[in-house]
Write a structure and sequence with these properties.
With 66 residues, this protein is mostly helical. The protein is built from 2 helices and no strands.
Amino acid sequence: MESYLIQSWPAAHQDALLVKATDTYGVQVRAQPANDTTVIDHEDSLDTQTGRERDILRRAGRGDYS
């Protein structure tokens, strides 16, 4: 099983950018319709790496770089 952290923030719209598409598993996944995508929203707890990274992004968005 693989896990990926995908973070986003407000920005102007851009077309999708495919960074790498050479693996055989990815070929199977990319062949599926986009509506098969599952989005998981994790808690923003500061006890997790994800929560700490989201907190950093939120503070940076407010100009708080401490």
